[in-house]
Amino acid sequence: MVRVRRSASENECPICMDPARFALETNCGHVYCARCIIQNWQTNFTTTPMLCPYCRQEIILLLPCFSEGEVMAADVPTVMERERVVAQVQEYNRMYSQHPRSWYGQLQDLPTILRHIWAELFTWRGILMAFKLRVILSVVMAVLYVVSPIDIIPEAFLGLLGLADDVVVIIIILIQVSIVYRTVVANRDW
After folding, report:
1. In the chain, what's the furthest Cα-to-Cα distance?
2. What is the pLDDT of residues 57-104, one digit of tens each?
3. Do the beta carbons of residue 32 and residue 63 sit within 8 Å?
4. pTM exceeds 0.90 for this model
5. 34, 97, 168, 178: which is deepest, by most CB within 10 A?
6. Where are the alpha helices (DSSP H) in the chain?
7. For residues 24 and 33, what is the distance between their CA atoms, to the nearest angstrom?
8. Rounded to whole angstroms, what are the CA distances from 75 to 64, 72, 80?
């Protein structure tokens, strides 16, 4: 997803020194024009991630950081350029995002990635992601409840009747998961 900037002049590309057009943010937090950073990648194409021109850290992830005007534009040339940039970013990320990183490198990337996650949570795609997380969390909590020795109705005292609360919790969570799934399917673009 795209983290939206207020205006195109909000960030200056350190390569061309112009306002970043179709800006891309690296995992290390530096912002470049899509044209500049993609050209840098394609010029020095290797099997290893390119190094950030600013700080020399490995770029394992490019994150779109387009301006509101670039996201909302409906004219054909801008839409085509935006789609081309997104396709190239997806290609780069597919090639290098699984590249091994040290714990220290992952800690360095954390502020940028968390900022993008936070921004994405308030989009339609982010809402769907929150639904998925809710389903996963519900299932994990149900499993933890069933295997936990702490029960509302303990099995040690009431035998099979003590399993009733476990079954009720599982049924309630499965109903919740089905409600979330129905909501996602109902709002899906086919």
Report:
1. 74
2. 999 899 998 888 888 888 999 999 999 999 999 999 989 988 888 888
3. no
4. no
5. 34
6. 34-43, 68-72, 76-96, 103-120, 124-147, 155-158, 164-186
7. 6
8. 19, 9, 9
